[in-house]
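S1.2 Input.
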Amino acid sequence: MDEGEARHLVVGRLRKPHGLKGDCAVFPLTDTPAQAFALGHRLWIRNLAGEVVAGPLEIERTRPYHREWLVAFRGHLHVDAVGPWRGHFLEAEAGTLRPPSEGEVYLHELEGFAVQAKDGIALGLVTRAVEAPSGLMLEVQGPKREFLMPFRKEFVVTVDRAGRRLVVDLPEGLAEL
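S1.3 Output.
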């Protein structure tokens, strides 16, 4: 990404066209779908290969629909125009979204965070986030080897986004396993 290009974050996944007038059923992947899918908001569409296939697209119609949102884009108000986007992702410019609150962090930011025990001992650096059936796990490169750490409230005491640091209270021996 070059210096002038805005950073985009995924905010939803296009499930399927809804009706004949270009509405798309969108599964939200954000805590603030009303903001991400607001009237007039601009979004981009990215396919599974990571390529931007459309955008910026301006939202012309939007409304919540069960656990999803129905969204229609200006200039694409027919089912045939939106059908090829089924299964693709919607992205918004990061600057247009609510920043993470105190103690929150975007998952893509966790890589490189320092992990520190609550007693001040450095445990390592986060090298990646792993989705497991039990929830999100962080791979941490420790002083001797790597280990997986659950990213859960019970274990993560403090998230210092500005300092890129996690303070944790891990069960005895977890970092040594």
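S1.4 Remarks. DSSP finds two helices and twelve strands in the chain.
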